[in-house]
Structures are given as structure tokens and as C-alpha cells.
Design a protein that fits this description.
- It is a single chain.
- The protein has 6 helices and 14 strands.
- It is of the alpha+beta class and about 375 residues long.
- The protein has 2 domains: about 260 residues, no CATH class; about 60 residues, no CATH class.
- Strands 8-7-6-5-4-3-2-1-14-13-12-11-10-9 form a 14-stranded antiparallel beta sheet, covered by helices on one side.
- A hairpin with a 2-residue loop joins strand 7 and strand 8.
- One of its GO terms (cellular component) is nucleus.
- Its main location: membrane.
Length: about 375
């Protein structure tokens, strides 16, 4: 982004309320996970005629910062196209939002294609170090009208909800079916300056989606710039966060969902069952005792078969027991180790007889 290459004027900002910053800090990845989906709505005029469409998608992504560091985040995309009074207009939004709902990068494009004086507005926001750098480009026709760059200190932006982060916050509020009271957030106004924003619960209403009547939860978001007229939007959500209707106060067009989507259900994790330990008396259990006898006979048969196939085993054990009873050593383990040592596969061949004055390697370790 070009704005990061040259120093940008530092803008002073207002402060969000403590309730707003606390609300954002309590939203975790487990609550945001069900909010990652795509949806689309149709824009209709006052007469009910379709004049455009809106699409919104949120999915997991990885954002590469300066220096090569990567951060898991959310990629938010939104786009709208419409025709009002035969004039094409639209907007697009692409942003990377951290799991703490902080804006890492956001690109916003709005256009109105008047025949003689088409207007085009682009706003780029990117986090660089400890600052949030903003660049605005306004074009009229093919000529650049205005370019402006400035920056904000990230330390002063606690409680900021950008346009992209707002889409996630609204889905969280819709799933909670509640809106925090007496909280003031920070937001960008139409000039990309920091202002205040509030959310207000409007209660539950009935809405017809296709041929099905559903209950929707309504939330109003109001953005109040320091100068100019406040702007407000009303959002009507299904129980899982899908948007059923969106209205910009004062606009003749309305966004509607035409077909009821498949609602997202979050499976509740059931606690693991706890089984009581019961004493096991296998001799009184007929089945276990029968298995014990079968295993015993199987082992005995296998041992007898092995001994028959290796007659040298009986002779070897007989020699060991005879010598053991003759010597009657106090340390039976060391005596056995010395007796069977010449039969070891890894032991180098040597004399069967050992000198009486030679130290035994087993007496210091057994």
C-alpha cells in the first residue's frame, strides 16, 4: 500500500466505552466459528421489483504481515450491485479481520456511474506496526479528484468495529439474540474518519421468507459522525445469524432473502458418561471362569508342544538343577547367570571352563 511509504498525518480519535471493549474481548473463536458462512440477498424497490443483489461471505484465512509473519484470521468479502433510476451503482468490500476482531487490512470500493460525471471512491486501510494507515482516493470520470492519507494509533482504537468486522459482530449478536446496552463503539464514517457507533435491539418480528413465516431478531446500527447526518441500518436475522432483511434508513430499496437457508446448528458436546467401578470376582463369573480355563488349557498345550519339539530343553534344565543342588550357592541368580552365559547369542565364543581366579562379570551387576 502506497500510504505506508510516506508519513501520514496522525488523527486524534474518540474513545470507546469500557462496556464496548469488554464486549469485544469476550467474543472468542468458538463463538465466531458458527458465523463463518456465505449468504446472498436480493435488493428490491418500493414497488417490489428486484433492482440488485448483495452477497456476503466469511471464511478462515491466513494473513501475512510485514516481515513474513503469518496470523490466522477471517477473510470477509461483501459485494452489492444495483440500478437506481437507471443509474448503475455498487460497492465491494474485502478485509482481513483478526480473531480479536481487529482490522488487519480492508479495501472498500464504491461507485456510481452517472453518464456525465461517474464517481468512484476507494478506501484502503492497513495495519502497519502500531498504526492503522488509511488512504482515500476519489475519482470523477477519468480524472483523480482527491487523494488523502492519514493514520491512527492502534493503541487509541480499542473498541473499533470496521465495516468488515461489523458483519461478524452482527452475526454474533443475532446468535445471542441480545445486544449489550449502554455501549459506544468506534467506527469509520463515510469519509474514513473515526466516529462513534451504537447497536440497539429492536426485538422480535415475523417475516415471510418464501412461503414460510419465520421469527427474526432485529438490530439497528447507527453511525454518528462528528459532522454530518447520522446514518442507520436495520438488520433482521434468523436464529443462526443468516440475514433475512436489511434496510438502510431513508433508502427506498430493501435487501431481502428470497429462499429460507439451511439453518446452522451447533452440536452441543455431551458430557462423557461415568461408569461406576464394580469389584470383579472372576471365579464367580461363569463366563470369565470359562475363558480362564480355556486360556489355561491353551497355554499348557502350547508349552507341552514346545517342550516336545525341543528335547534339549529338558536336558539343559536337568543339568542346571543338578549342578545347582550340588553347589548350593547362596546367590542363585548370579549362579544362574554364570551358568547360562555361554549360551547367549551375543556372547563371543570362549572356553567352557573358567579359571578359578578370574572375576565374574555378573557378580557386580546381579
Amino acid at each position: 500500500m502506497d500510504a505506508a511509504d510516506s508519513p501520514a498525518p496522525v488523527q486524534r480519535v474518540l474513545a470507546a466505552s469500557e462496556g464496548a471493549t469488554e464486549f469485544l474481548s469476550l467474543i472468542g473463536p468458538e463463538e465466531l466459528s458458527p458465523c463463518l458462512f456465505a449468504e446472498s440477498l436480493v435488493m428490491v424497490s418500493e414497488s417490489g421489483q428486484p433492482v440488485g443483489q448483495l452477497s456476503v461471505s466469511v471464511r478462515p484465512a491466513c494473513y501475512e504481515e510485514q516481515g513474513g509473519q503469518e496470523e490466522d484470521c477471517y477473510l470477509v468479502r461483501a459485494a452489492s450491485q444495483s440500478t437506481v433510476n437507471d443509474v448503475p451503482c455498487g460497492s465491494s468490500l474485502t478485509a482481513y479481520i483478526s480473531k480479536r476482531l481487529e482490522t488487519l487490512e480492508q479495501h472498500q470500493h464504491e461507485y456510481v456511474k452517472f453518464r456525465e460525471h461517474p464517481l468512484d471512491r476507494k478506501t484502503h486501510v492497513v495495519k502497519r506496526g502500531g498504526r492503522l494507515v488509511v488512504k482515500k482516493i476519489i475519482e470523477e470520470g477519468e480524472h483523480e479528484v482527491q487523494t488523502q492519507s492519514f493514520s491512527y494509533s492502534c493503541a487509541s482504537l480499542h473498541g473499533l468495529i470496521s465495516e468488515a468486522a461489523n458483519l461478524l459482530v452482527l452475526r454474533v449478536l443475532a446468535r445471542r439474540r441480545a445486544v449489550p446496552q449502554n455501549t459506544t463503539f468506534l467506527a469509520f464514517d463515510t469519509e474514513a474518519c473515526i466516529c462513534t457507533a451504537t447497536y440497539t435491539a429492536m426485538g422480535f418480528q415475523k417475516q415471510l421468507v418464501g412461503m414460510t413465516e419465520v421469527e427474526v431478531f432485529a438490530v439497528e446500527r447507527a453511525v454518528c459522525p462528528d459532522e454530518g447526518i447520522p446514518m442507520a441500518w436495520q438488520f433482521y436475522f434468523l436464529s443462526d445469524g443468516h440475514l433475512a432483511r436489511r434496510v438502510q434508513v431513508g433508502s427506498p430499496a430493501t435487501m431481502l432473502v428470497l429462499q429460507l437457508p439451511i439453518l446452522i446448528d451447533v452440536d452441543e458436546v455431551e458430557p462423557r458418561p461415568v461408569f461406576e467401578k464394580k469389584p470383579l470376582d472372576w471365579e464367580d463369573d461363569v463366563q470369565l471362569y470359562s475363558q480362564f480355563l480355556d486360556r489355561k488349557e491353551e497355554l499348557q498345550a502350547g508349552h507341552a508342544s514346545y517342550a516336545r519339539r525341543h528335547p534339549e530343553l529338558r536336558a539343559l534344565l536337568a543339568d542346571f538343577l543338578q549342578l545347582l543342588l550340588l553347589r548350593k550357592p547362596d546367590d542363585v541368580l548370579t549362579f544362574a547367570a554364570e551358568f547360562f552365559a555361554p549360551f547367549a547369542a551375543q556372547r563371543p565364543p570362549g572356553s567352557t571352563f573358567r579359571a578359578s581366579d578370574q572375576a565374574s562379570p555378573f557378580r557386580g551387576r546381579v
